[in-house]
Every structure is written in C-alpha cells, then in structure tokens.
C-alpha cells in the first residue's frame, strides 16, 4: 500500500492544467459519477503495471491505452480528482496511484468475509488479488456440515451461525456471497444484521437490502449473454449466411420484428 500523504496534503496538490505548483482544490472525497468510480480501479491497475515496468510518468494517451479507455474520458475522470498532469510530461505515476487509492479507500486494509464455499467460493478464497489490493479475507462461512471445519487456503470454514461473533471481534467491511440463488437473500439479511454495509453478490438473484447498504452484483451468465448479443450483431452485419436461426424464422438484419429478435437474445 502507498505511504504517501493523501491528496490535498501540503506538497501533494496535483498540478492544474500543466502549471507547476498550482494545486487543484478538490474535496478529500469528491462526489464522483458512478461511471468514473467504476473506471478508477482500471486506472489503478494500469498505473501499477506502468510502475512495475519502471515508468515514473505517463501521458494520458499511454495510461488510456493501458486501461482500455479513450484519453478524453480518462482526462475527464482524473480531473474529478483534481489531477491534470503536467503539460509535456504527463501524470506522476506514484502521485496518481496515491490519489486513486485514497479516493477508493485503499489506504487502510478492510476485512472481508466469504459466505458459500462451493466451487466458486473455494476459488475466491484463494484469489491473491484481494490481499494485493488491501482486502483481508477474515473468515469463511458455510452451512454444509461437510465443509464446516475444513481448512481452505489457511482458514477454517466456520458455520454461518458464528457470523455475529466474528463480526463483534473483527468489524467486517464487506461480505462476499457465493451461495446458490435460493440462499443469497437469507445470507444478505444475516450480513446486514451483523453490521456489514458492503456486499459483493455472485449469486444470480437481486438482493433486497436497507438504505445505506451497497451491493455490487457479479453475474457471469449475464456477461455471457451480453457477449452473445455482440456476436449476434456481428453475424447480422455479415448477412444471412452468418446468422444463426432465431425463433419465428427471423434471419436478416432487416427482417420484420427485429426488435423481438434482439429481446430473444437477451432474455
């Protein structure tokens, strides 16, 4: 983790529009658009790769290519942080890492619990990316008697009934749900009751949570369906020969009820 002072500290203001020493004034925690928040981790990962490759500075074009976005969008996102880089030089990689880590709350380690130790949960428990980005897996939970008591990646799987005790001993920042869909809401309720206000949900269902609890959903099937749409669209552009048969005999891009065909792909 970075040990530099957070943005806004004396001597750590980002230069404004390339004017050396001109600090941009931004709140410690600016109110960012959701789309910008979603891209900040991508920028951070790209910056870490650039730093590991020995880069001390990076232009907006270099950073945009590394993050997979266009440079205009990147500059606008970073301007929300008060970071404009230096004309002719670019962004200071170390300073920008500090700024993004501070905004994302990565300057402190956060405890994470994982509920559901099936195949996906087992893989998540061993994911090295958590620790490298400031997240500590504090406990593993399940309700299956065959799993409770097992050692998985250095931690003993505990019964979900022990969640309140664990939360009392070590406040939990985030709960990860990797249970089957039918058990996910009950797990979410128990996490909320234990004081957890951030949930990462891998179960394929929508969770109902109180105001003040943030939920991020990861559904691999939905991502595959979105990719399927793009594949279908490319096939449509190639003409009837490239199309897969659809319900109702719809084939060409100009066929009647083409909107219904698109809905069928995403259903």
Automatic annotation (TrEMBL):
SUPFAM superfamilies: NAD(P)-binding Rossmann-fold domains, Winged helix' DNA-binding domain. Pfam families: CoA_binding, Put_DNA-bind_N. Residues 42-81 bind DNA. The keyword NAD applies. The keyword Isomerase does not apply. SMART domains: CoA_binding. One of its GO terms (biological process) is response to redox state. Residues 105-206 form the CoA-binding domain. It is found in: Cytoplasm. Its main location: cytoplasm. GO terms for molecular function: DNA binding; DNA-binding transcription factor activity. One of its GO terms (cellular component) is cytoplasm. Residues 237-248 have a biased composition (Low complexity). NAD(+) binds at residues 116-121. Keywords: Cytoplasm, DNA-binding, NAD, Repressor, Transcription, Transcription regulation. Residues 1-25, 237-267 are annotated as: Disordered. PANTHER family: REDOX-SENSING TRANSCRIPTIONAL REPRESSOR REX (PTHR35786), REDOX-SENSING TRANSCRIPTIONAL REPRESSOR REX 1 (PTHR35786:SF1). HAMAP family: Rex. Belongs to the transcriptional regulatory Rex family. Modulates transcription in response to changes in cellular NADH/NAD(+) redox state. Homodimer. This is Redox-sensing transcriptional repressor Rex. It comes from Catenuloplanes indicus. The gene is rex.
């Amino acid at each position: 983790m970075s040990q530099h002072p957070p943005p806004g500290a004396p001597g750590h203001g980002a230069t404004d529009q390339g004017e050396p020493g001109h600090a941009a004034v931004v709140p410690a925690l600016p109110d960012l658009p959701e789309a910008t928040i979603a891209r900040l981790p991508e920028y951070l990962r790209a910056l870490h790769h650039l730093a590991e490759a020995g880069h001390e500075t990076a232009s907006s074009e270099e950073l945009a290519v590394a993050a997979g976005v266009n440079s205009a969008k990147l500059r606008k996102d970073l301007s929300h942080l008060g970071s404009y880089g230096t004309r002719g030089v670019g962004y200071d990689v170390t300073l920008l890492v500090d700024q993004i880590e501070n905004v994302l709350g990565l300057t402190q380690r956060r405890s994470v619990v994982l509920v559901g130790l099936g195949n996906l949960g087992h893989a998540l428990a061993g994911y090295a990316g958590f620790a490298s980005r400031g997240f500590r897996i504090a406990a593993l939970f399940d309700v299956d008697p065959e799993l409770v008591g097992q050692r998985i990646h250095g931690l003993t799987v505990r019964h979900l009934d022990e969640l309140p005790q664990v939360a009392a001993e070590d406040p939990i920042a985030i709960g990860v749900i990797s249970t089957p869909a039918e058990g996910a809401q009950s797990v979410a309720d128990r996490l909320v009751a234990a004081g957890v206000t951030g949930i990462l949900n891998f179960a394929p269902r929508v969770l109902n949570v109180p105001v003040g609890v943030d939920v991020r959903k990861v559904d691999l099937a939905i991502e595959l369906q979105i990719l399927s749409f793009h594949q279908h669209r490319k096939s449509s552009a190639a003409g009837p020969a490239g199309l897969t048969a659809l319900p109702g005999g719809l084939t060409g891009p100009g066929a009647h009820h083409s909107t219904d065909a698109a809905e069928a792909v995403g259903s």
